[in-house]
Amino acid sequence: MFCGNCGKEISGKNGVCEFCGAAFAGNGNTQESSKEPLSQSPLPSKVRGKKKILAVAAAVVCVAVGALAFAAFRLAGSPKQKVLIGAAKTVKAGIMGDTTLVGVLGLDQMIEEIQKGNTAQIFEMNYPEGGTGIRVQAFLDQKKGVSRTEISPTIRNMDLTEFILYKKENLLHFGLPDVLDDVYYVDLSNLQGEYSGSALDRLIQEETGMRLEHVLPGDMTAKETHSYLKSCQEELGALYDSMEVEKDGTETIRIGGKSQKCGKYHVIISGSSVKDLLSASLDYLEEQQGMYVFMGESLIDEYDTIYWLKKEVLPRLKFRDLDMTVCLDKKGRLVSLKGEWSVTAGGLPEPIKLEYEGTFTGGASPLDKIRGVLLISSDGQEYEFTFERDKQFQKKSSLKDHMDLTIVELYGNSTFTYPFSYEFSYNLTNGKWDAALVKTDTGTQLLGEGKISDVEKGKELSITLDQMIDPWNNYYEGSYKLTALEKEGVSPLDGIEKGISLFDMSRSELVGVGEDLSEWMDRMSGDSYYGGSSVPEETTADEDD
């Protein structure tokens, strides 16, 4: 069908030409208006002349605006844009779509609510048989910029103590009210500067030989914390610029049980851009290590691992360009991809080769049904990962999610297979849920069941773990609650007004705090191992002898 006004071929939908906007009859000819003109009196020739000029000017403007709009539309709809937007649509639908637990419970709205205002979160997990557990309460007053966290661990039915963390503006306070008389704080805006050369710095170096100033960041305040996207913005931009995308015909794929013609695209991504992005990602991880400096020696090991990857491993690797084919459905979502990639490493006789193929054909959400295969091979050794997912969602009724992962290792003449399966179901009518993670060849499994209640999107949620049984038949129970701060009757400000700077303390003061902590730990150890009573004197004397 062709438009009777502009002459272009049109779809015939909606009764208007999608190019010039003219209404048309069923045969494509432009329709004449059925309305009578407002006035039948003829116009003076000068007026008619001005009207013609205005009409021509208006037509020129319309054509120019239309051309610009069309050019912008074509630019926005370029193959590269379509592929990237399609991948983003697929991921978003799989994580936050209507058929996900996030969408059903409104967890995304709840996260927004947490970021906005006054919330209380309470988490508890217990191992009743061993008398061990932990309770964490987090209270946040976003408007005042104040937070309070209380951590209460239990070992062998003994409440160890209550750890309290306060944060207001740049100061992080912490204390153990049952053990220490004072609350201490550090200035997050100058953490490295305050620590370096302090009595605490010298004491830690003397006792452990550890120098922490190279791990501590200079500033850990929220306004100085950069997201991954911001930190790697330049490398991500270069990766985008390096992409080459071309339309490559169509392919028929069954989506949601129906066959559909999908647009096929050939994509090439620069291997050097991928390497640069990996390097920037390691830089970002290295910068973030200071946030967890108080985790102890394991942090230093992790820090060294990142440094080793940056300085020793990555420079030896040479990445070939990624070459893949992707398909988009009629809604512009990613529904299949396949390709191969290889990485050459110094010291290896053969490159590491990756071959991958995946289809995402769930219908309402493409990630509801997945079939994917990844093959990694190098120097006579192969690993094959096969993943399948089948999620069923019945609105206002149930959500069931089943996944299978099989890992096959080929080494020489030997083959090793590791099969796993995951099952989750949630009843939308009564809130009950259950889940199972099973290593199917041995029957080893992790089971859990409970209930989700008090669901008020964006404001309140309670999740109960009635029981969880691990592979060693240990039994656990727990709960999580998100609610409004005022419902818990807690003031995050309690205790913040007093405190002592940890980095202003003298050596003797630090030693005194250390002795108090050591005495408390010895007492707790004795209580937990000897059923709540201290070690008898004669036993201690015998051991000393």
Question: If you had to describe this structure to a student in words, what would you say it looks like?
Answer:
Helix content is 30%, strand content 36%. The protein is built from 13 helices and 22 strands. It has a 22-stranded mixed beta sheet that branches. Helix 8 runs antiparallel to helix 9 (271-288). It is globular, with a radius of gyration of 33 Å.
Attribute tags:
13 helices; single chain; 545 residues; alpha+beta; 36% strand; 22-stranded mixed sheet; 30% helix
Which helices and strands, and how do they pair?
Layout: H1 45-76, H2 79-96, H3 101-105, H4 107-116, E1 119-127, E2 132-141, E3 146-155, E4 158-159, E5 163-168, E6 171-175, E7 184-187, H5 191-195, H6 199-208, H7 228-231, H8 233-242, E8 244-255, E9 258-269, H9 271-288, H10 297-313, E10 317-319, E11 322-328, E12 334-345, E13 352-360, E14 369-378, E15 381-394, E16 398-411, E17 414-427, E18 432-439, E19 444-456, E20 460-469, E21 475-484, H11 485-488, E22 500-501, H12 507-529, H13 537-544
Parallel strand pairs: 7-22
Antiparallel strand pairs: 1-2, 1-21, 2-3, 3-4, 3-5, 5-6, 6-7, 8-9, 9-11, 10-12, 11-12, 12-13, 13-14, 14-15, 15-16, 16-17, 17-18, 18-19, 19-20, 20-21
What is shown here, in short?
This protein has 545 residues and is α+β, with helices and mostly antiparallel strands.
Overall average residue pLDDT? 79
- Count the DSSP helices: 13
CA distance, first residue to last residue: 105 Å
- What percent of residues adopt helix (DSSP H or I)? 25-40%
Residue runs with pLDDT of under 50 for 5 or more positions: 25-75, 290-300, 528-545
What structural class is derived from the secondary structure elements?
Answer: alpha+beta
Shape: globular
